[in-house]
């Protein structure tokens, strides 16, 4: 395997000990640990027993969250403990490109391509359960999208192990990664590649995501130390960002095609992260509403509420009004990672926990727009019926 050296020499980072290309027993154990979807009793308890509860919250609206491989019965127990006083709820999971069901509703977050704006768009689709029984075309579309999105992992791996000199040099310059870090990452990721090639057909398909590389590198912390592994992770994060920026979007289904298929099935449709997809506010897509707040998207919440309000005033009775949503964007599997390896911003998210509903300035705008949480639940549930 050819090793890439950064063209601009960064600060030297000493490797605590040499890494060898041979896959060790510890490597195998670490690999199978991070691809496993089986939960220990302790992990089940981490899911069912949240560290904090919110007894004052009586209304729970959660239509953008990711169960990942966590069983729904455990998630249901967590939700009951999070909100012991809840008396009104609408809770719908939205796994990436795969329909999942919680209670009476099913949902999915779909990656699409907006040709007019030449960028990726995501849609949240929500259904009453009976409506997905005959959704054969949509399920085939999602299966294709899921597999294509998963192929990004192998592009990520190939960028490092083949390697792609331009991408790796760029990532090294951006992060100041030393020759030692670049070399270490290539050897470690080559081990993952070898193990994937040996066991690919036996692995849970939901494990084949970019985070597999992050999680495997974290298993090396006891041997190489947190400081060094943290620097490797920063470098790999930069490589991943470059890979994602160069990932072809034209192979995704077009946004209009997904909307048409979803509407034929009676789905509700919400656009998440609109501040990341500015042009879609101009597209006039046939959707039920926009997500105006998200842990990753908080800067323009008040502005987005105003956009929805003005749009609703303009359309009058000719079209149904757009609704305001907030997404907690919880990733349940993040709660199983040890604290030193967690993405803290993701680990602290909770299904249905969206503090912006209670922010005084935001609430004032919500009242004016007639979009309080209980009102949104009522109207959206009626649309899904």
Describe this structure as you would to a colleague.
By secondary structure, the protein is of the alpha/beta class. The protein folds into two domains: 111 residues, no CATH class; 211 residues, Alpha-Beta Barrel (TIM Barrel). Helix content is 45%, strand content 12%. It contains 15 helices and ten strands. The strands form three sheets. It has a six-stranded mixed sheet with strand order 4-5-6-7-8-9. Strands 1-3 form a two-stranded parallel sheet. Helix 6 packs across helix 9. The longest helix is centred in the middle third of the chain and has 26 residues. The chain is globular, with a radius of gyration of 22 Å. The N and C termini lie far apart (57 Å). The N terminus is likely disordered.
Strand order in the sheet with the most strands: 4-5-6-7-8-9
Helices and strands: which structural class? Answer: alpha/beta
**Number of separate domains:** 2
What's the story with the biggest beta sheet?
A: 6 strands, mixed
Helix fraction by DSSP (H/I, runs of at least 4):
40-55%
User: What is the number of strand segments?
Assistant: 10
Unreliable stretches covering 5 or more consecutive residues:
1-11
Rg calculated over all Cα atoms: 22 Å
| CATH class descriptor name of the largest domain | Alpha Beta
Secondary structure: elements and pairs:
Layout: H1 25-35, H2 41-48, E1 59-62, E2 65-66, H3 72-82, E3 88-91, E4 100-102, E5 105-114, E6 119-128, H4 136-161, H5 165-175, H6 179-199, H7 211-218, H8 221-224, H9 226-245, H10 255-264, E7 268-271, H11 280-283, E8 289-293, H12 301-315, E9 323-326, E10 330-331, H13 344-347, H14 360-368, H15 373-384
Parallel strand pairs: 1-3, 2-10, 7-8, 8-9
Antiparallel strand pairs: 4-5, 5-6, 6-7
